[in-house]
Write a structure and sequence with these properties.
- The structure is a single chain.
- Helices cover about 0% and strands about 15% of the residues.
- With about 80 residues, the chain is mainly β.
- The radius of gyration is 14 Å and the shape is flat.
- The relative contact order is 0.25.
Length: about 80
């Protein structure tokens, strides 16, 4: 599985006690889909059925978890 997620650059985020959940932990998004970046909002649940040999494109404004399959991810410097 490959996932491409587009973001706007915002610089480093400073996390503090206000970012802690009810359990006292801070959950940082690792899937790239959270609307609460850099914090996890559970958006990764939309990825549970991704196929192994498929490339997916998620738009950062696609809050309903829909995605599309693409042939490949091509970077500007390649």
């Amino acid at each position: 599985m490959t996932r491409e997620v587009t973001h706007e650059e915002r610089g480093p985020a400073v996390l503090d006690d206000d970012d802690k959940g009810d359990d006292g932990l801070i959950y940082v998004c690792q899937c790239g889909l959270s609307d609460s970046q850099p914090l996890c909002d559970g958006s990764h649940n939309a990825t549970t059925d991704e196929g192994d040999e498929v490339v997916y494109k998620y738009a950062n404004d696609d809050a309903d978890g829909e995605r599309r399959e693409v042939d490949e991810v091509v970077y500007a410097d390649e």
